[in-house]
Fold each of these.
Amino acid sequence: MRTTRVTAAAAALALLALTGCGAADMTRQASPYAAAQGAKTVTLSVQSWVGAQANVAVAQYLLEHELGYRVDTVQIDEVPAWDALSQGRVDALLEDWGHPEQEKRYVDDKKTIIRGGGLGVTGHIGWFVPTYFAEAHPDVTDWKNLNTYADRLRTAESGGKGQLLDGSPSYVTNDKALVKNLDLDYQVVFAGSEAAQITQIKQFAKERKPFLTYWYKPQWLFEKVPMTEVKLPAYKEGCDADPEKVACAYPHTPLQKFLNADFAEKGGKAAAFLKNFRWTTEAQNDVALMIAEQKLSPREAAEKWVKANESTWRPWIPS
């Protein structure tokens, strides 16, 4: 769901997840609408977490209904999305949580991708416990006290240690290194996806059980399950430069958009619109909540938001 380097193993797992489950392998297969010369078509990369789906749903709705484009979407994990974007298999990525290695390779060196500006949302990854547990045990919110609670946070999957629940191994995460380098008696357990992680968190909350989880803001779930962040050692610039030696918190990251360079030059009003697209955390959460909790389809959620917020999106539409 981000602002650190993904290990080669995580990237390989991301690609395996794409191909092993029957989804499109974007290193081999392009959308039929990507980079279609002379046609009013746009292909957007959409990540698996619901906030990213909210961005794409609103962008797609406005591109289709206000600018008359045909929009295709392709779900693809974070690192493979950069390869697909560089090769023109997708035209735009609307929510990147920070991949400095890919940015240097494709934006600065190869110049096959351009920066599309900020999304308007600041992302932050952290470790969280349910607020009901933090209120009963205030010291659990300091990482130095986590080992005291390892027995309380043990599960069948954590092998006798406390459980630190993560989502997909394809997400940007330093958690295994943090557990090792901070000498914590915990085991990182991957739920497998954002949806699976949400299901587990909701179940813990329903039973009022304690849990420790990797989670991120913005995310609509905080409105349903209040959680309190555990303070890790303070983030300082460069403290996460070596993935094996990370012993600091995750940074707060202004989320960024990126466009294929050819599309940015030749994509006309669609490219201009995507550069202009910029909204707030609250707006993203509104749409995400409609999708995840109210069970509206992304298109239905986008339509509902668009009809209620014309003053916000009208300036995005190029003349």
Amino acid sequence: MTTTEPDGPMTAEAPPRVAQPGPRTLAWQRRRRSAARFWKQYRTHRAGVLGLAALGLFALIAVTAPLTVGSDVQSVTSAPGEPLESPSAEFPLGTDQFGRNLLGLVVWGARVSLLVGLLAAVLSVAIGALIGITAGHFRGWYATVLMRITDWFLVMPTLVLAIALATVMTRSLGTIILAIGVTTWPTTARLVRAQTLAVESRPYIERAKALGGGHRHIMSRHVLPNVMPLVLAQTTLIISSAILAEATLAFLGLGDPTVVSWGGLLQDAREAGAVSAGKWWYLVPPGVAIAVVALAFTLCGRAVESVLNPKLGVAR
């Protein structure tokens, strides 16, 4: 009986190669971990969580307003009640000077007030971040000119400038957003410029320049990611100021008369003589809504600042 020998020595089978995640996958994993760490620290701030819950409730009210109250709540011709009715079972917050349901008007006004506040704050922060980053990066005469312009806007009363812009332009929501956005950016510009100067003094910026990194690369890949936490915190703080500014402009009669907002309701109450007549239900609901939303954004902003910069020591 004969046996056959194997042709060569037997070798162990190599384990299958595990595919390594790509750079984009690794970047998303780091972002998810950073977001998880941020939320874990944010939850320790009770005031911030309370403010976030309040904002979530107001956002839900604003989004579902077409379903809960309908757009016909703004109609003057089909008002369901008598002018300036006191609160009752049919009208929990009473009626306005045209007989419209004030509860429905406050709910519908949340859409406009929150939208204007958000867009105006985004515009303000975008202008401030752009000016702050470029002034901190290029320096020289360019930074000097930009900072002198910023100083001029800082010393000028913001509300006066917003009123001047809203007066010379057409009365619309776009005008209100533009008026608030282009008058509230100087503080952000100052903060972002200071952060940009601190970032550009670090050694890795010098290495990036030595390796041929241009101005656009330095600002977009190295400076911007490092100032974004500051920009985020500043945005949450400016939103509350923007909502108050929108309410002020609408109260002064400079808002869009065709839309319902909280500031517009206060203006209507003033014109109807609700203050002297003691019609408190016409004034209190929109005023309380403005105050609560502004406070909620402020609480969220302070919590975000504390998480991103623990040295601030913001109370929890």
Amino acid sequence: MAWLAWGAIPIGALILFMTSYLVRRRWTEALHPVFVGTTGLLPIVALAFVPVLLVMKDVYPAIADSASLPPFRARWFVPWFFVLRTVIYFLLWVALAEWLRRSWRNDEAMVRAASVGSIVWTLLVSFAGIDWIESLEPEFHSSIYGLIYLSFTLVNGTAFVIGAGLLSRWSIGPSRGYSGLLLSVLMLWCYLHAMQYIVIWSGNIPKEVTWYVARSESGWQFVLALLSFGQFVFPFCAMLGSRVRSHPRWLLALCALTLAMRGFESAILILPAVHGLSFTMTAVMLIAALLFLGLILWLAFDAALARAAEDMPPLAAIWPRLRRETGIRSAGQGR
């Protein structure tokens, strides 16, 4: 759960990095060091997943007892193949991050890396969500589950990048635009969860419905309600006001709330599938894991951000093509 809550940050930041190359505005330049520093955490996140692979038979029932699964699933969850897929995911993500970093300041290379990378990233994240989370309950399947994990990483990465940008010493531009970005990914997250619920409810298939039944009893209904309110209802209503959207402190607070809610969503996705847990022991272990892994990633991010800042030219040094496009747009608006 701790790995899912924190490890999704650099994975989600990677697609934002690509988007900044395709939709070039001030954030392309202003957040570039933050993007480089955040995606630079991918090797550390990959190493942090090694303990999960070492005990994967204790974590994933599909791997421990693949003989009880249908033939395709049984072959899909062979231990060596599961490890190989995980390694491929991280190798390709690290390669994409390095490709984006090397493409900086080269217009054609930036578009090429971001275009190809967006397609590859979407496919990899969808498969990873099915492998790492959905397979915790091998009897359950949702065709939209890969997109739900995609929205999980996207929300996580967006909140962290915006929050880190606000805390940095650079001027990243007006808060209003970043508030719109955060609101848009939260609405996407809510839409995908709502679609999965509606499809499963209308289908009324017992193997799928039990996934929601387990999360609607034994106290999990309160966690689910807290997640719904704290992750969508409150941020959505708050960002309807122009004062909240344009105030950096309000935006920073909403980013912090979003990151905190990722821990609750990780709990909802993972823990109901595990039986016989001790509440006290589980709470202590989770707090320790969250603090330990979070501290390691923050120290690594701080070091990566310092290195990225050394190579960062002044904010006004925007490439000529962008200056020409800005001049054209300004002239058009004037007319």
Amino acid sequence: MSGADASARVGDGPGGVSGAPGSSGGLESTGVPTMFDVARHAGVSHQTVSRVLNDLPGVAAATRERVRESIAALNYTPSPTARAMAQRRSGSIGLIQAGRPDYGPSSAALGFNEAAREAGYAVSQASMRTLDADVLTQAVHRLVLQRVEAIVLISGEREGIDVLRGIDAGVPVVAVASEVEPGMHRVSFDQAAGARLATEHLIGLGHRRIAHVSGPADSMDAAERRRGFAVALEAHGLEVREPIAGDWLAASGHAAGRRVLAERWATAVFVGNDQMSLGVLHACHEVGVAVPDELSVVGFDDIPEAAFFTPPLTTVRQDFDSLGRDIMATVADVLRDEAAAPDRTSRVPELVVRASSAPPTVRQAAE
């Protein structure tokens, strides 16, 4: 994407942030040590190194000494800009949103903003419609220059996590990430558990041939939902077919739905989000396939419109407002005592049963 896609609500000017560490575990290719090199050398997270550099509490004495020894051994010099900014409390938190302004991320961002305001923090925000590594890096640098005390990333793409891992920001980073990411503070719903709920619901109705329309390959949430779907089917000894990949939008769900109907194999389909479910329902309507009499459909997210689809959509509800508040609670924990700060990744979504799912017909069950 171009730089014009990024929000102008962050400050201007270059960032004083060191480069990314090399993938080999040693110094980066330039030979200049980074905070991440120090973290690997000391066997700690880069956030712990940041706390030691800024003389913040929450680090055991032995760990603090080990980090200092690694700093000396590597002759590491922290970014003066990032360190100066981190040492000055600003009462501000940086929020980066990368990706389409869909209902879930936008609602989570609103919940976070409200919780931050209630906690006495201002939020400096940067937004980009598509995730671009250079633009994301620039946004981090600019937020550091705004003297934010922490940075939050709301983006479901793995690339965003990879970019943050390579930036020596000098402040704690909290990411919405459903996949395990060592050394990074995470907040998320248990996506795999939600997918299991949806799939177990269909199995409980009597369906034995269940298709899956998944989100895009670079999405962490999509991968976790695929995993939960497969785990549920395997637990019942049912066939796990390769999912049909979509892009979260209704048009891709429509194309996937046409494919499911053409194959004439499935009696039910678990769809990776509600927008794609709308496309599947439209495909069924076009060819005269009755839902749920001839095909049951279950979505994910429970967007406000889901209850008004035709038929009303059975789906998995995610409370995005609470997710946003979990983000702020994690930020507060990290700023208070990073070493003891818990991740919040175990909240399980809720199955909402509506009219789009039903038991298979006698004929379908016998096939």
